[in-house]
Amino acid sequence: MSTPLSTHILTQAIESLAEKDSLKGLFHEHRDGFPLPSGTMLEEIVQLARSILFPGYYGNSSVNMQTIRYRIGVDVERLHQLLCQQIMAGLCFAEDHHDCPSTNKEVKQQAEVIATQLIARLPTIRRILATDIVAAYNGDPAATTTAEVIACYPVIKALTIYRVAHELALLGVPLIPRMLTEMAHSETGIDIHPDATIGSYFTIDHGTGVVIGATCIIGDNVKLYQGVTLGAKSFPLDEQGNPIKGIARHPILEDGVIVYANATILGRITIGKGCVVGANTWVMEDMAPETIKNNQYIYHKK
């Protein structure tokens, strides 16, 4: 049983924790009747997306060409259901409630439209991921088959979720895309912001420690190695001293760029077509196409 002293201490702690001033910026007052984002449901969304995009590698092990239409149909139906719920939760969790429709029914309808649009984009997502698999396989002499790449390589696991999350971000869904890519980050060590733009035939060798910022633009046939950071410099501040949001602050990597391990590329600079950035190199200025840079030299390819 609690003693009078412990009861008093607990009561004081509760009063302090519930004090309005202590909650400023740390409390989300949710609207009655609207769902909250669910980590458990998002994990199921990840697994369903992988099983739909790569049947036989994830999900039901008994799938074959005679049953694939049925299996994909079942998975798509469940995915659509979960997406409707979690997109609705994201729309209603957004801080600016003025952007959120006023009634539960309106939000539900908006979420269903977005979920349907996302499902319609899955064939395109699969086609792009197929190019990423080719890039990972061709870029790694240790890869024995593309099946090994799909089943084992962290870059494909991270890119699968990034490419789904990116489409959700393009469709205007708040919060949920970032939650999905952070789940991939936790699983693989690869941190890709869902707002980043990444072309086809993209790969990251090994993967761990890679950071790709929100306003990055990456072309086709780009290869990164572990530990690469595509980041921003110090943020410009407004008159009140707060960081200015929404500006392009991360690098542009044009087609065919290779960035070796632990290189750091910062700011809104352009790494030209066919460039090579050496390992452990800092880059904070534009690189002309077809040039090579390491910590000591920058020169044109022969």
Compact description:
By secondary structure, the chain is an alpha/beta fold.
Q: How would you explain this protein's 3D organization?
A:
With 302 residues, the protein is of the alpha/beta class. It is 42% helix and 12% strand. It has helices at residues 4-17, 39-53, 68-93, 104-120, 122-138, 146-152, 154-170, 176-188; strands at residues 191-192, 197-198, 203-205, 211-212, 217-218, 223-225, 229-231, 252-253, 258-259, 264-266, 270-271, 276-277, 282-283, 291-293, 298-300. The chain has a 6-stranded mixed sheet with strand order 3-6-9-12-14-15. A hairpin with a 4-residue loop joins β14 and β15. The protein starts with a helix and ends with a strand. The mean pLDDT is 90.
Radius of gyration: 23 Å
Q: Report strand order across the widest sheet.
A: 3-6-9-12-14-15
State the major sheet: 6 strands, mixed
Distance between the termini: 81 Å
Specify the number of helices. Answer: 8
What's the total number of strands?
15
Beta-strand content:
5-15%
Unreliable spans are none
